[in-house]
Amino acid sequence: MTPTPRRLGRLAAGLLSLVLVTAACSSGGDNNGDVDAGKLPGAGDIGEVEGEVDRNLKGTVDVTGSSTVEPVSARNAEKFNKLAPNVAISVDGPGTGDGFEIFCNDEADITDASRAIKPEEIEKCRDKGIEFIELKVAIDGNSVITSTENTATECLSFLDLYALIGPESTGFDSWSAANDLAAELEEELGDTYGASHAPYDDVPLVITAPGEESGTYDSFIELAFEDIAEARETNAEARPDYQASPNDNVIVEGISGTPTSLGWVGYAFVAANPDAVRAIAVDGGEGCVEPSPATIASFDFPLSRPLFIYVNKAKAEAKPEVAAYVDFYMSDQGFASVEEVNYVGLTDDEVERTRAAWEERETGTREG
């Protein structure tokens, strides 16, 4: 199959991320373990790190997958390298879908995921003889964003989002172009999926958001569009004519550069860029709710979703450095990284369930 321009763009961005982060993480020798995470949320000095890790441990840990989870894994790589400076850890974020493709082709030790693994991905892993351990590590909220210059848009419902970004909005180059579709949706579906905020202003509509390789794309479509698309007898997908990127920082930059922009990213990237983008409240049928640590943790924010890492069981058994890195990830300091990069931590019970799954090397999915 010939790669499309969008696909080539995704691959290029993923390769760039891999080169940059691997260079930072794998300088070798007795380095200080700093991971140059660029604009990743929570990047910066981590201070002192305590833990029982063999300082003489050597080897490599290859982490791929979700750009949403990437800040957590990168921060834990940085912390871990304070204790085991001779382990080279590469962390890249080509997207959840591309990450599973790499992971299920036995080309990575761990893959980050902003959604649960899909049946077809399980089958691909099975075909390669790969057993995986699924570990829930955090909660996130798919945050609908616009430029800080856009003060007119305070809340959008699932119905609004479908009218502006969904499969029937292809070609709309202004917000007002979606007015007729929004009125039709409201007449057909009422306020089941939130009240319509149409008519919209006659201003340019420029959308920058994750592409189809992203778990952030998948979870957004599932939560916001799936039921509406089923009622409309259309495919649950975003319009194809928007600027797609696997890099959340590229999305933030695109949104910040256009006053009447629209898109979505993980909450951490909103919290890390308050001068560039602004989160819009979302109405999933029970009123407008803004994303925040509290509303995401309670799942009152209607685009809340869990975040995961998936560990190759055989690699963890064969490579002590992989097992040691995941051990650290499961420690108090490892889970602390979640909130340090502005995501929402699991409850104590959920943390214990995740730790138990790792300690018992429990394979398969409980979420997919």
What does this molecule look like?
- By secondary structure, the protein is α/β, with parallel strands linked by helices.
- The N terminus is likely disordered.
List keywords for this structure.
alpha/beta, 39% helix, D-Maltodextrin-Binding Protein, domain 2, three-stranded mixed sheet, 12 strands, nine-stranded mixed sheet
Instruction: Classify the beta-strand content into a percent band.
Output: 15-25%
CATH top-level class of the largest domain: Alpha Beta
SSE string, helices as H and strands as E? HEHEHEHEEHHEHEHEHEEEHEHHHH
User: Which term fits the overall shape?
Assistant: elongated
End-to-end C-alpha gap: 28 Å
Supply the CATH superfamily name of the largest domain: Periplasmic binding protein-like II
Q: Can you tell me the CATH topology of the largest domain?
A: D-Maltodextrin-Binding Protein, domain 2
Largest sheet: 9 strands, mixed
Alpha-beta content class: alpha/beta
Whole-number radius of gyration?
20 Å
Which stretches of 5+ consecutive residues score pLDDT under 50? 1-38
Please give the count of helices. Answer: 14
The portion of residues assigned to helices is 25-40%
Average pLDDT score? 89
The total domain count is 2
Q: Could you say what the CATH architecture of the largest domain is? A: 3-Layer(aba) Sandwich
Report the strand count: 12
